[in-house]
Design a protein that fits this description.
About 50% of the residues lie in helices and about 10% in strands. It is an alpha+beta fold and about 300 residues long. The chain has 2 domains: about 230 residues, Transposase IS200-like (Alpha-Beta Plaits, 2-Layer Sandwich); about 70 residues. The strands form 2 sheets. It has a 4-stranded antiparallel beta sheet, sandwiched between helices. The protein has a two-stranded antiparallel sheet with strand order 5-6. Helix 11 crosses helix 14. The longest helix has 23 residues. The radius of gyration is 21 Å and the shape is elongated.
Length: about 300
């Protein structure tokens, strides 16, 4: 698999989505809360036309990787999830507007390496929070569904549930008559019916050893910055254009950006990317170089 062509491998885009945790607030307090939030992740993605590759539910926030058409679909998905969860928390605990003013981070995953790091970061989230010693010990993530780690137990199509059963078991009034998911005897939407484990396994070349290697070698502090902080810190195109212009003039004896050859532009990509709050799409817009070329240069 070409490490640089994630976007070319599929007809959809991939996004790392996370909600900002609320300090000193615990949203999910018991198993019923986690089960309900788990199911809401599945339903919100289905209703907005997205698919879930990976997720980890924490007590006050969530991380997930979505496959969908564009960032607007990812935004609709997480907003629907928060709307459903807010109503549930209001009905159960009287918590009003608890998620109303919380922000979300949505960043596009555009390389295989970025995807591998993101998967590892999400599945290690509970371990980094010292909730468990190993990712596989945490119940509220999608870890168990990759590389045949989970076996399908007793389950049945959600469409078999009556409306009242859906309200009681799934805590939702959504029209689920056409929902393709299955539910197990404990009331969980089964991982095998809503998680795209096939994509995750392909990312790791169908190698469980490679999957475990990345989970074991992830630098959590660096990944937290790269995956949750840096995407929210990009400067505007105008400011970045001025930075690139100044850098080009200093590097190439006063040349304007428009006067640079493609080779000259390529030669300044690495220092621009690693020393500034920018992104591959932004560099592509400013320099006029193709994103694929920029990814290739940055990965070498």
């Amino acid at each position: 698999m070409d490490e640089l062509n994630l976007i070319d491998l599929y007809d959809v885009n991939f996004y790392h989505v996370c909600t900002n945790g609320l300090e000193r607030v615990t949203l999910l307090k018991d198993d019923e809360d986690y089960r309900t939030a788990w199911n809401y992740l599945a339903f919100s993605a289905w209703r907005s036309g997205a698919e879930v590759l990976v997720f980890a539910l924490m007590s006050n926030h969530v991380h997930e990787i979505l496959a969908c058409k564009d960032a607007s679909h990812a935004d609709v998905t997480i907003k629907l999830y928060k709307k459903m969860l807010s109503l549930y928390l209001k009905n159960k605990y009287g918590m009003t507007k608890v998620l109303h003013n919380t922000s979300d981070c949505i960043s596009q995953i555009d390389t295989v390496q970025y995807m591998k790091n993101c998967i590892a970061y999400i599945l290690r989230n509970a371990m980094c929070a010292r909730i468990c010693a190993k990712p596989e010990e945490y119940r509220w993530s999608s870890y168990a569904c990759y590389f045949s780690r989970v076996r399908s137990g007793n389950s049945f199509p959600i469409s078999r549930l009556t409306f009242s059963q859906k309200r009681k078991i799934l805590r939702t009034g959504l029209d689920l008559r056409d929902c393709p998911f299955r539910i197990d005897t404990d009331g969980f939407v089964t991982l095998g019916s809503f998680i795209r484990s096939d994509i995750v396994e392909r990312i790791y070349r169908h190698s469980g050893k490679s999957f475990l290697y990345y989970l074991g070698s992830c630098n959590d502090a660096r990944m937290e910055y790269e995956l949750t902080c840096k995407p929210m810190m990009h400067v505007s195109d105008r400011d970045m254009y001025e930075t690139v212009t100044r850098y080009a003039a200093g590097r190439f004896r006063g040349k304007e950006l428009a006067e640079l050859t493609s080779a000259e532009k390529c030669s300044i990509l690495k220092p621009l990317f690693f020393n500034n709050k920018t992104s591959i799409p932004q560099l592509s817009r400013i320099t006029g170089l193709p994103r694929q070329l920029i990814r290739r240069i940055l990965s070498t």
